[in-house]
Amino acid sequence: MIDITYGGGVPAEKTAVALGYFDGLHLGHVGVITAALMQKDMKPAVFTFNCDTTLPKFRNPEDIISFENKCELMQKIGVEYLFAPDFAEVCAHTAEQFVSEILVKRLNAGFACCGKSFRFGMGGCGDPQMLEELGAQHGIKVQIVDDVCHEGVPISSTYIRELIRNGKIEEANKLLGYDLWYRLPVIEGNKIGRTLEFPTINQVIPKTNIIPKYGVYKSFVSLDGRNYRGITNIGVKPTVKNRGDGSGAVMETHIIGFDGDLYGQNISVSLTGFIRPEREFSSLEELKEQIAEDKLISMK
After folding, report:
1. Is residue 26 within 8 Å of residue 155, measured between CB atoms?
2. If you placed Cys at 270, which of 83, 165, 179, 293 could pair as Cys (CB 3.0 to 4.6 Å)?
3. Residue-number span of the structural domain to which 236 is assigned
4. Mean pLDDT for all residues in the chain
5. What are the pLDDT digits (tens) for 31-62?
6. Are residues 21 and 146 in the same domain?
7. CB contact at 8 A, 117 and 154
8. What proportions of the chain, in percent to the nearest 5, are helix, strand and coil?
9. Does one domain contain both 256 and 192?
């Protein structure tokens, strides 16, 4: 069981616990967590799952961001305690056991909040109304948080995934509340970019992540506390026929204004806008000319 607890051990103080899978940690999820953050007499906490574990509703996991990135974002918004077990460790808990063993004994909860669709307990037998009833038996106040909507429609991870699949990154970022980002190791490439005067870093998006529409994106790259503009191609690199290590889609980024060795380092790349679909070029010279055009667009 993965047990990440900021502050160490079982909280000595009462906690206000936000409950949910929180895939992507979009603005709807932040709305739930904010309810916990507002309990000023308690320490803000989150119960979630390690999204590296496949949950029943995902036949093929398509995480919007990695578990590590999700943890980092939670810490930034003020979450002090995070309990994130593997789903397999708690799936056999009854609804009553979930409240008594996790909320009471593990998180010392005095308050719990969740969205309207939250389910807990074996087979998802518990709903928010049951959480209110069971919470009252243990002195835990429960708040059911209303959906956060955008243009009258509730924000959902499912819709955000659809936007990402279709290259609508700017729209997805609005609903996420941040730019879609990856922190991944830089792998050895074929160094074709250097011969085109556009050196790149190569990273592989894990198969467990949602893969954006193949194509070229505006991006930002974070290096040593500084953000560089970038041009990022996601896909199979049809002109040079190279897919990296074969474990997922290749993300190849030209960092504007930087030329250095980043092999083996974990580098953060944020996607900010879609430029064009990926396509095969008749020659490397034609590819070079297109990259130059992409660079001009990315600088706007």
Report:
1. yes
2. 179
3. 179-298
4. 86
5. 999 999 999 999 999 999 875 554 555 446 78
6. yes
7. no
8. 30, 25, 45
9. yes
**pLDDT given for residue 1 in this prediction:** 35
34: domain CATH number is 3.40.50.620
Strands 153-154 and 149-150: antiparallel
Rounded to whole angstroms, the Cα distance separating 255 from 228 reads 6
Tokens representing 35 are 């309810």
| Strand ranges in the chain using DSSP code E only, listed in sequence order | 15-19, 43-47, 81-83, 109-115, 141-145, 149-150, 153-154, 181-185, 201-204, 215-223, 226-235, 250-255, 266-277
Is 243's pLDDT higher than 50? no
Lowest-confidence segment of 9-23, 81-95, 260-274, 276-290 by average pLDDT: 276-290
Contacts of 177 (CB under 8 A, 6+ apart): 25, 26, 27, 30
Domain count, the chain: 2
